[in-house]
Amino acid sequence: MRYLSTRGDPEQRRFCDILLEGLAPDGGLYLPVAYPRISAQTLEQWRGVYAQQGYAQLAFEILSLYIDDIPPADLLSLCQKTYTAKVFGTTAITPLRPLEPGMFVLALSNGPTLAFKDMAMQLLGHLFEYELARRGEELNILGATSGDTGSAAEYAMRGKKGVQVFMTSPHGRMSRFQQAQMFSLQDPNIHNIAIEGVFDDCQDLVKAVSGDHDFKRKYRIGTVNSINWARLLAQVVYYFAGYFQATDQPGQRVSFTVPSGNFGNVCAGHVARSMGLPIDQLVVATNENDVLDVFFKTGVYQVRSSAQTHETSSPSMDISKASNFERFVHDLLDGDAQRVRRLFQDALSSAGRFDLSSDPLFALAATQHGFVSGRSSHPDRLRTIQDTYRRFGQIIDTHTADGLKVAREHVRDGVPMVVLETALPIKFADTIESALGHAPPCPPAFLDLSERPQRVSVMAPDVNLVKAYIQEHCEAKA
Ligand SMILES: *Cc1c(COP(=O)(O)O)cnc(C)c1O
Fold this sequence. Notes:
The protein is α/β, with parallel strands linked by helices and about 475 residues long. It has a domain at about 95-115 and about 230-435: 3-Layer(aba) Sandwich (Rossmann fold), CATH 3.40.50. About 45% of the residues lie in helices and about 15% in strands. The chain is built from 20 helices and 15 strands. Helix 17 (about 380-390) packs across helix 19. The mean pLDDT is about 95. The structure holds pyridoxal-5'-phosphate (PLP). Pyridoxal-5'-phosphate binds near residues 148, 259, 262, 264 and 316. Pyridoxal-5'-phosphate binds next to helix 12.
């Protein structure tokens, strides 16, 4: 399998070459030259693989179609090390549970940080360690987080050889649980940097450091952000695992609703559907930051400034632009890379928007690719959390509540609807408490979390301070 940039850079690359990279050199995102198509027969064979050999083996079958530069025995062992009942809580890894008839929740949030990002990031930790050792290289991951991404990255990379993590976050602005999760890590290769500012300051600092090419090369700076192809690929697996649990007949169709921000999660669903998984609809659920809902309803994609981005009670979906969206637009435009470049490089930077409403291809988003969308607001979220607790005795988190609210608007007769659970409620305890009048249950492993000693350096938003900190910790190690 070879990979190409969405913006037409002619060089084809292999999986391990793009594994450690972010954007393609032309600013585009990597996609495989073609999606492998799965026959109905293979699909039924995989149903047996998942039931009898488990999630790790299923992951290996799927990843093997996209990764041909890691020996199969090694890839299998990486999958087996990643997807264990010990790390993810159950042998199903992503168990499905019913709500009302026809409606299901796919639990993706029982990994180490209690959000779905662990599903991909845990694999990435093992892949990075493997590939860096093979090359005899080291990598310093620099990131910015407002919560889930940073903690998932830290728990994936902790103790891994050849990798250090420098994670910036806005000082005092994450939920208490998220803060305690990150700052209580004592591994010497994990560094928390709390920036006296907001999330955008953190992102600007990361961009400024990465933009200094000499510094970047000298200190081998890398990222693990949501545009990483390996992350997206890892997420494809649970659409298959969810499908097998929701169906028992070959060829039966299922819809998925995905609480969305950067479009990484639902883009993995698009890849699974493009491979031939019988997905009926892919329902994109947004919160008040409804850039994607507006696109799927009108054909207009209009990014927002950070000042126009709402701070909501489903904060992991508070985005101003959706960084993975370019991958879908590339497929929607039938792989016309020059046009993707004009839209994402030219139109977005000059006008901050593009409009596909009058293009006949736009209609294919729904008719050929199965996309529909909806939006949920703070009152919707609270009502959905209350109603789900009252009727089913289940507590769902705020992001999953956005998904469930929108899912109900798109249910079709005879087609199971699967809502992806993207976090556990304890991560957003304050909102749950205001909805239900009591706190959500805390998993046993986290009961003493708030008492654990915390490790963090607080810093002014100054790029030289961040660079000096990285330099000091790289030299101390060398
Ligand atoms: C990251 C995240 C999302 C959004 O996922 P995308 O892949 O960015 O669309 C939704 N919910 C939670 C809890 C998250 O952490």
